[in-house]
Design a protein that fits this description.
The chain has about 450 residues and is an alpha/beta fold. It contains 14 helices and 15 strands. Strands 5-6-7-8-9-10-11-12 form an 8-stranded parallel sheet. Strands 4-13-14-15 form a 4-stranded antiparallel sheet, with helices on one face.
Length: about 450
């Protein structure tokens, strides 16, 4: 399949912190995950559940308690839930419909399974002895370091990817979008190894793969490899800092979009640049999508730190255009001097996602694999310590699925939808976010993939 390409580089696309958050991270046990320690209960349940069963004594949210117009608490109740063929088929008040057998949730809170929308499963230190990243001065320096490191990582990358998948499951995630190195050093081996790991977990974990030219699409002459990666089954075309790394913003972005058009795929680009070049790159991508309607709704800006440099009307106009063209933003919710305008983007209609990025590797060692932690960071940075705001922050980790609507009506779980959920040691969503409460079990399409009930 090919796109309608014509003429020149432009013509061929003519078809149409608050640092106080750190305390909560430490309280959440951050150091244990960063060291590569396995979850204490990280193995899947040893006794598979039948295709049809009843999960007893599950806590579900039922509504909000208010004082005037202020939400002050969340109402919950205990339920028995019938699961059949991987779907939720019935809800009963606990004990009201006796007879069916199944595990006992013992009052644990049921929340939607989380979705890690930016991670690198293919290159990780997780599962190995502790090692901290070396000091670095630039992205280009890190690329040179990675070129020496990859041959050491590849022989055991399947094993480490599986351990990282198990960590995500232990934190409530059953879906991820993983960036996978496509570069001259590893060739297509990183992709092959990641696909091997995912095939071994196809019944209990779902993953979208982004073909990621980590060493620069142009800088490492990886366009041919990227096309081969798409032929091998990668779902998204990735990119990296077109000015800082590739040194030719328009040429780099045009090459990335040409691959996406040829394979009718989406785009997910790492954009770290905060200089004016970062804003210029976003504007160029918006222009490209306007001229190519097939790309509308299919572009994700990962990190997109340049958006954190905009204010006032300039930010408002940029957010409105991103929403109009269907762009999404995948943010790790960074803490520090740069505060991303995530609430402003959401208010404008931009889909904002999050991910744990590198749990521990040669880039950074701080990840825990928990999307509840990301929701907690969001609530802290953007000022939401109240019951209602904390409950809304959960959406960042669940792909915008929440048990209660803004007006307090139960909207999840939904009958006949996939039984993808986690059981959490918390009284309500707000507590789960605020305390980063322990996940006691994780289910994917009715299958218990973590914990023991």
């Amino acid at each position: 399949m090919t796109s309608s390409i014509c003429g020149s580089r432009r013509d061929f696309l003519c078809t149409g912190a608050k640092l106080t958050a750190a305390g909560t991270l430490l309280a959440a046990g951050m150091s244990g995950a960063a060291s590569g320690a396995q979850p204490q209960q990280g193995e899947a349940a040893k006794s598979p559940l039948p295709a049809r069963y009843r999960l007893h004594n599950v806590r579900l949210e039922e509504g909000f308690d208010k004082e005037g117009e202020v939400v002050v608490a969340t109402q919950t109740g205990l339920y028995d839930i019938d699961i059949d063929g991987g779907k939720i088929v019935a809800l009963h008040p606990a004990g009201a419909s006796p007879g069916a057998t199944g595990p006992d949730a013992r009052g644990a809170l049921m929340l939607p399974a989380t979705r890690d929308m930016h991670i690198h499963l293919d290159k990780t230190f997780y599962g190995d002895p502790w090692q901290a990243p070396r000091p670095r001065k630039s992205v280009l320096e890190m690329i040179e370091r990675e070129q020496r490191l990859i041959p050491q990582l590849l022989p055991r990358s399947v094993e480490r990817a599986e351990k990282l998948i198990a960590l995500l499951q232990s934190k409530g995630s059953t879906f991820a979008r993983s960036h996978c190195n496509i570069d001259p050093v590893s060739g297509l081996k990183s992709l092959e190894h990641l696909q091997t790991a995912l095939r071994k977990h196809q019944a209990d974990f779902e993953c979208e793969i982004v073909a990621f030219p980590q060493h620069g699409l142009l800088h490492s002459h990886s366009e041919k490899l990227m096309r081969e990666a798409m032929q091998m089954g990668a779902h998204y075309v990735g990119g990296l800092d077109p000015t800082v790394v590739d040194g030719a913003m328009e040429k780099s972005l045009d090459a990335m979009f040409a691959i996406a058009l040829d394979y009718q795929a989406g785009v997910d680009i790492h954009l770290h640049e905060t200089a004016p070049s970062g804003v210029a790159a976003i504007r160029y991508m918006l222009r490209t999508v306007r001229e190519n309607p097939a790309l509308k709704g299919k572009v994700t800006l990962s990190h997109a730190f340049a958006l954190g440099t905009l204010q006032g009307e300039e930010l408002h106009e940029m957010a409105a255009e991103l929403a109009t063209q269907g762009f999404s933003v995948a943010s790790t919710v960074p803490i520090g001097r740069l505060i991303m305008p995530l609430p402003e983007l959401k208010a404008a209609g931009v889909r904002v996602m999050s991910g744990t990025d590198s749990v521990t590797d040669h880039w950074q060692p701080y990840g825990t694999g928990s999307m509840l932690e990301k929701a907690n960071l969001y609530a802290q940075i953007y000022g939401g310590p109240d019951e209602f705001s904390l409950s809304r922050a959960l959406a960042l980790g669940t792909g915008d699925t929440l048990p209660l609507s803004d007006d307090g009506k139960r909207q999840w779980p939904v009958l006949q939808q996939n039984a993808d959920f986690m059981l959490v040691d918390a009284s309500c969503s707000a507590e789960a976010v605020a305390r980063i409460s322990p996940v006691t079990a994780t289910f994917h399409r009715g299958r218990q993939v973590y914990g023991r009930l």
